[in-house]
Amino acid sequence: MTAHLALIGVVASDMAASLAFYRRLGLVFPEGAEALPHAEAGLPGGLVLALDTEETVRSFHPGRHLPAGGRVSLAFRCGAPAKVDALYADLVGAGYHGEAAPWDAVWGQRYAIVLDPDGNGVDLFAPLPAAE
Asked: Do residue 54 and residue 94 come from a single domain?
């Protein structure tokens, strides 16, 4: 039997702040999830992004040490290079930390990095038009 990736989990130190960040990226979480210890949003292809409070994670893994940031890295594909710039500007304008302003990466993508409220890297990217 082969296992298939089905869920990506992010530990949130502040559920409301994390929900606000990921909702701004277009993910849909249930209304009132701010008061819950666990919330999920469906992703394309059937994957799920789950947010769990630190308390929830500790209840399932007693004594587990949770590092202070960089616990996961996510990448969001944007529809076009200009959308990378616009989304980066929106997030930074809303007060989120811009780790790397948009640039044209040597691997052929417009790329930027923003940190979520827990310091996790969230990459924004779009393919660059092919050079003529």
From this structure: no
Q: Give per-residue pLDDT as tens, 102-124.
A: 999 988 899 999 999 988 889 99
Tell me, yes or no, whether 67 lies in a domain. Answer: no
State the Cα angle at 44 between 81 and 15, rounded to 5°: 90
In this prediction the pTM is 0.82
Using pLDDT thresholds of 50, 70 and 90, give the confidence band for residue 70: low
pLDDT of residue 72: 78
- 64: burial class by Cβ within 10 Å (0-12, 13-18, 19+)? exposed
Query: What is the helix (H) or strand (E) element at residue 9, kind and residue range?
Result: strand 7-12
Q: Give the whole-angstrom CA distance, residue 55 versus residue 118.
A: 15
Whether 66 is covered by a domain: the verdict is no
66 and 115 Cβ atoms separated by less than 8 Å:
no
Same domain flag for 1 and 50: yes
What range defines the domain where residue 11 resides?
A: 1-61
One-letter amino acid for residue 59 of the chain: S
